[in-house]
Structures are given as C-alpha cells and as structure tokens.
Amino acid sequence: MKPAVVVGKLLRALLGLVLLVLGVAGFFTLAASYAEYPVVASQTEGPGWVRGAFHVHTVRSDGRGTVEEVAAAAKAAGLHFVVLTDHNDVAPREPAFVDGVLMVPGVELSTAHGHLVAFGLRRPLEGFQKWLDGGDAEAAVEKAGGVSVLAHPVQKRNPWSHEEAARRADGFELYSADTFFRDAVRNPFSRLLPAVGASFGNPVHGVMLLAEPGPEPMEKLLALEREKPRVALCAHDAHGLPRYEDVFRALAMYLPDVRKLPEDARAAADLVVKGLAGGGAVCAFRALGEPEGFTLEGLRTERREAHVGDVLTVHLPPGAGERVRIEVRGAGRLRPDGRSVELVEEGAVQVEAWVEAPGRFFGRQWRPWISPSPVKVLPASSP
C-alpha cells in the first residue's frame, strides 16, 4: 500500500475519533444545561456564615492567577477569605484585604514524604529546605506556632508517607479538588470527558462531576483520629484550571461562629485561623446548597469528643428534604430515624450530609454535601 494511502487512512481515522469525542462531549454539554443548582435552596435570612477558600496557588508558584485575580474570583463567588498556599513560599507575609476579600498567608511545603500545608505561622519557619524530611518539616511548623495540614494525603501523585508526622499533624485534607481533577485525568473517558463537556454548558456542574470521593481518605482520617483530634478540611488546591471562580462556587470552608470579619486584616486573619484550626469549621459543596443550620448535637466538649453509648443528633439546614441522607463512617451507626447516630465503639466517627445531585447524564447521583471534622469516640462514661 502506498504511503500516501496509509497517511490518508490515518488522517480519516483521527478525524473520526475527534468527531466522536466532540459528539460525546456535546452530549454532556446538553445534559449539563438541564442540571439545576442549588439542590437545596437556602432559606436562611440575614448574614450567613463567613466562608472562604483553603489551599490556593497563584503565579508565585504554579498557579495561573495573580493575587488580585484570585481575590476578584473569590469576590465574584461570594467568598470572604482565601488561604494562599504557594509552594515553598516561606517569606513572611502579612494578611491583607484585596478587593474586599481577606487574603490569609500560608504555604505548601514540598517535603521528602509528601506535601504539608502550613498556615497561621506566628514566627518564620526555621531550617526549612525543599525536600526536607517530612517529620522535620512538621516539627518546624509546630515550632513556628503554625497549623500543619496533610495536603492531598492519599493522592496517587504526592501521597503523605511519614506516619509519625501524620500522627502529629493538626489537620487533614479530606476532600481535594486537585485530587479529584487528577483522578479524572487518569480516567479520561469515564470522568474527564463528561466533566469537560459539562463545563461548556454549566461550569460549576463540570467541577461537581469531578467530585467523586473514594474511600481511602476517609479511612486514613479516621485511623489518624484515634491518635488525637484533628480538623478535616476541604482543599480547593486551586491553580486556575478549572477556573478559580468555578471551583470557589463549587465548595468552601465555613466558620459557623463568625458572621462578619473585622476590618483589621490581622485581627480578621487570626479569627479565620482560629476558626479553621479549632475543629468547628464545616466543609460544604456549596453548589448543592448552603450549610447554614447544620449542627451535630450531643458532643460533650469543644474538642469534638463523645463517649460510647452517646447519641448524636444531626440538624440539617432548613429546606433539606428527601434528597438528603446522613452518611456515617467509623465508630457509629445511623438509627432508623435517619437523623441520629449511636456511637457503638471507641475510635472515631464521621457524620456527613449527602445530597441526591445531578449526575453525568440526565439522572441523579448521591454526592457529599456537608462535612464537619470527625468526632473522637472515648470509652463509655460512668453513670
């Protein structure tokens, strides 16, 4: 067969493949135009909980946007703060309001055992160098008075592998938008193509289609919670692809005890750091609905602890109906009423609200909606 004929057949085959991909993507674009958000309409009056983005990159490392562009995207998405975490950017920085959005300084440290997010640093990091031992990096954050968070700890590309440091860390990224994206890249036809196609018709729906959590992060979090209480965070890990604004509209961290930030940037940043590190913050996939009104009743201490035999009651936001269910992982079981959780053994329990949300096609799919930090379950107390 002549070379020209072979080339012609290859070009026609390639064109056919491209047309097929475009056709499939177009189908998901059409389906996305029928996806309705939010699933749970907000019925809260007055100022809501202060909300923001955690773990965001700019052009100071591998992000696509400047600080000003990130602030503009956050403002457009209705966020109040952004925790900036450029890679290994350890130069001391002051918090500041940019376009009305509080920019809180932080850093993502590249260590020999994975990535570690640090924020709320009271003093400069001493002795940190790129690819430092993970345990030494965590110790440096602690010495600097900061909060250490295991970044995307079970991600295939950059998992956390220093067990001792993991047990000492203050926080854990339970859900990571960047991890969702990387998982989709490894499954181009079943996950990435539907999300890309949907993004043309509904960008937020495209981001939500990426959010398909596996069991590994939850299992790791609950195992670590046995060591000490720690905070569970939703990480945007935003780099600008998908767009900052679309990711900011899809999920956020909420501070239930804060209705308004102070005008002084340092005081406001201290309030945000305290709220994120204290265990009371709530992660929500806000595209599905706002979380105001969600509470977990029955905790005995501010440290998010309870005892075997205790019963926790879940209060959902007003307007949550049959499309919402409670998911329980770890040392508890959901009672038949679907709203109370009995603690049955020592360890840790995670209680979340899930929503029946728009799926890839025209159907629906259960997705996580509201996720607080886990509860440490102690031995049964004396009568």
What structural class do you assign from the helix and strand content? Answer: alpha+beta
User: How many DSSP-defined strands?
Assistant: 19
Beta fraction of the residues? 25-35%
Q: What's the gyration radius in Å?
A: 22 Å
Q: Could you list the spans in which at least 5 consecutive residues all have pLDDT below 50?
A: 15-22
Number of helices: 10
Helix content, binned percent:
25-40%
- Overall morphology: globular
Mean pLDDT reading: 91
From N to C, what is the helix and strand string? HEHEEEEHEHEHHHHEHEHEEEEEEEEEE
Through-space gap between termini: 88 Å
Notes on the structure:
This protein is of the alpha+beta class. It has ten helices and 19 strands. The chain has helices spanning 3-32, 67-76, 134-143, 163-168, 177-185, 188-201, 203-210, 216-225, 244-250, 265-277, and strands at 50-56, 81-84, 96-98, 101-111, 114-119, 147-150, 171-176, 231-235, 252-255, 282-284, 295-297, 305-307, 311-315, 324-330, 332-334, 340-343, 347-358, 364-372, 375-378. The strands form two sheets. The chain has a 15-stranded mixed β-sheet that branches. The protein has a four-stranded antiparallel β-sheet with strand order 11-13-16-15, with no helix packed on it. A hairpin with a 5-residue loop joins β17 and β18 (364-372). α1 (3-32) crosses α6 (188-201) and α6 (188-201) packs antiparallel against α7. The longest helix is centred in the N-terminal third of the chain and has 30 residues, at 3-32. It is globular, with a radius of gyration of 22 Å. It starts with a helix and ends in a 5-residue tail after the last strand. Mean pLDDT is 91; it is low at 15-22.
